[in-house]
């Protein structure tokens, strides 16, 4: 089924809850529906963007084009051999529901990614991550529709060119060339946990550790730190944790020996905590208009109730400048800003 609406306010379709209108808002239930939509005359000459739950996006102005929303649901086991289980999920499946499904079926590998907002499709585009685990660690293949060649394609995890909160899907020309429709994950029946990262290390002494205990612990931690979405909209982590050369880190560590840091994938580099940098730049609780640096987790920019997109952009740029001045480190947004050309460059 296809549902098409016109002149739609996107506030309720994004987790920031900030008003911006689009010319066309279209939802689709199947890949065939998606193809039919893309072939329709009214979508032939307008820009398009495909969204999931709108949890990692900010429309900085009205979008003069079509916003597509996947309702491709369903989870199925496509291979079950020994310890390895291949699972295929539709792009519209709520990510945390998928993690919960895996826990209910005693499948290991994604429990550390509990309570991350968004959809299955977004997990493959964004390469979501938390507590030492990233989506790329468990993705087997990604199925997508190619809007240029007009056909379905299947990409191996290597072809997706995953990096820190990055993939080739974010850098295609034209933008949104590939629309993710399904993702295949390689999960495990073997009881194994990754609890060496951050707060999870507290669980190392639990001899009766279960998937549900890990999920519950992570959910509690996130709920304590992050805004209640029913009261304060946000996009979760607004900035990427910066990755800097070891030489720069060493200079910073001399001044700030308690600065948290983590190994980076690239040799000779160290990952820093963006939240720590923002807090220690004196920005905890700082606000511009209705946008505020969330006091319990400075990595989050929250909507205090009356924010507009210009408030968020102004606060983002202020944070970037303050962190640059204090630490000589550049912060880059993890949140997708649409349309980018509407953002004033300084």
From TrEMBL:
Its EC number is 1.3.1.98. The keyword Oxidoreductase applies. Keywords: Oxidoreductase. It is an enzyme of class 1 (oxidoreductase). This is UDP-N-acetylmuramate dehydrogenase. It comes from Muribaculum caecicola. The lineage of its organism: Bacteria, Pseudomonadati, Bacteroidota, Bacteroidia, Bacteroidales.
